[in-house]
Amino acid sequence: MNISYYDFQNLPDDIRYDMVINQGRFVEEKIIDNLKYSLYEVSFFSVEVIYNISSNKITGMNVFENRSAYFNG
Protein backbone atom coordinates (compact mmCIF):
# COMPACT_ATOMS: atom_id res chain seq x y z
CA MET A 1 0.00 0.00 0.00
CA ASN A 2 1.33 3.42 -0.88
CA ILE A 3 -0.54 6.47 0.41
CA SER A 4 0.83 9.81 1.52
CA TYR A 5 0.65 11.02 5.09
CA TYR A 6 -1.60 13.92 4.05
CA ASP A 7 -3.96 11.78 1.95
CA PHE A 8 -4.26 9.35 4.86
CA GLN A 9 -5.07 12.19 7.28
CA ASN A 10 -7.91 13.33 4.99
CA LEU A 11 -9.67 9.95 4.95
CA PRO A 12 -12.69 9.29 7.20
CA ASP A 13 -11.78 7.61 10.52
CA ASP A 14 -13.44 4.29 9.72
CA ILE A 15 -11.45 3.93 6.49
CA ARG A 16 -8.21 4.88 8.26
CA TYR A 17 -8.75 2.28 11.00
CA ASP A 18 -9.59 -0.38 8.42
CA MET A 19 -6.54 0.47 6.30
CA VAL A 20 -4.15 0.38 9.26
CA ILE A 21 -5.40 -2.88 10.73
CA ASN A 22 -5.78 -4.75 7.43
CA GLN A 23 -2.89 -3.34 5.37
CA GLY A 24 -0.41 -1.87 7.85
CA ARG A 25 2.67 -3.72 9.08
CA PHE A 26 2.42 -4.44 12.79
CA VAL A 27 5.50 -3.17 14.68
CA GLU A 28 4.82 -3.52 18.40
CA GLU A 29 2.25 -3.34 21.15
CA LYS A 30 2.20 -2.27 24.77
CA ILE A 31 -0.46 -2.22 27.47
CA ILE A 32 -0.64 0.57 30.02
CA ASP A 33 -3.41 0.40 32.60
CA ASN A 34 -6.51 -0.48 30.58
CA LEU A 35 -5.27 0.73 27.19
CA LYS A 36 -3.49 -1.24 24.48
CA TYR A 37 -1.25 0.78 22.14
CA SER A 38 -0.54 -0.94 18.82
CA LEU A 39 2.00 0.58 16.45
CA TYR A 40 1.81 -0.02 12.68
CA GLU A 41 3.86 1.14 9.69
CA VAL A 42 1.72 2.38 6.84
CA SER A 43 3.44 3.47 3.65
CA PHE A 44 6.09 5.99 4.80
CA PHE A 45 4.59 6.95 8.16
CA SER A 46 3.44 5.23 11.36
CA VAL A 47 0.11 4.92 13.11
CA GLU A 48 -0.60 4.12 16.74
CA VAL A 49 -4.05 2.65 17.40
CA ILE A 50 -5.32 3.01 20.98
CA TYR A 51 -7.70 0.30 22.14
CA ASN A 52 -9.64 0.33 25.44
CA ILE A 53 -9.55 -3.22 26.77
CA SER A 54 -12.45 -2.91 29.22
CA SER A 55 -14.89 -1.34 26.76
CA ASN A 56 -13.60 -3.44 23.83
CA LYS A 57 -13.42 -0.37 21.56
CA ILE A 58 -10.84 1.63 19.65
CA THR A 59 -10.55 4.98 21.42
CA GLY A 60 -8.03 6.87 19.34
CA MET A 61 -5.32 7.06 16.73
CA ASN A 62 -2.02 8.94 16.53
CA VAL A 63 -0.28 9.39 13.19
CA PHE A 64 3.48 10.03 13.08
CA GLU A 65 4.85 11.54 9.89
CA ASN A 66 8.46 10.91 10.84
CA ARG A 67 9.65 7.51 12.09
CA SER A 68 12.14 9.20 14.43
CA ALA A 69 9.12 10.25 16.50
CA TYR A 70 9.01 6.77 18.03
CA PHE A 71 12.40 5.13 17.39
CA ASN A 72 15.20 5.62 19.90
CA GLY A 73 18.19 5.33 17.60
Distance between the termini: 26 Å
Gross morphology is globular
What's the order of the H and E elements? HHEEEE
**Alpha-carbon Rg, integer:** 12 Å
Spatial order of the strands in the main sheet? 1-2-3-4
- Mean pLDDT reading: 90
Q: Hey, roughly how much beta strand do the residues contain? A: 35-45%
Largest sheet descriptor = 4 strands, antiparallel
Task: Give helix % range.
Answer: 10-25%
pLDDT < 50 runs, ≥5 residues: none
Instruction: Tell me the number of strands.
Output: 4
Contiguous helical run count: 2
For this structure, the quaternary state is single chain
Computed structural class = alpha+beta
Walk me through this protein's architecture.
The chain is α+β, with helices and mostly antiparallel strands and 73 residues long. Helix content is 22%, strand content 44%. The protein contains 2 helices and 4 strands. It has helices at 5-9, 13-23, and strands spanning 25-32, 35-42, 45-52, 57-64. It has a 4-stranded antiparallel beta sheet with strand order 1-2-3-4, with helices on one face. The model has no long low-confidence stretch (mean pLDDT 90).
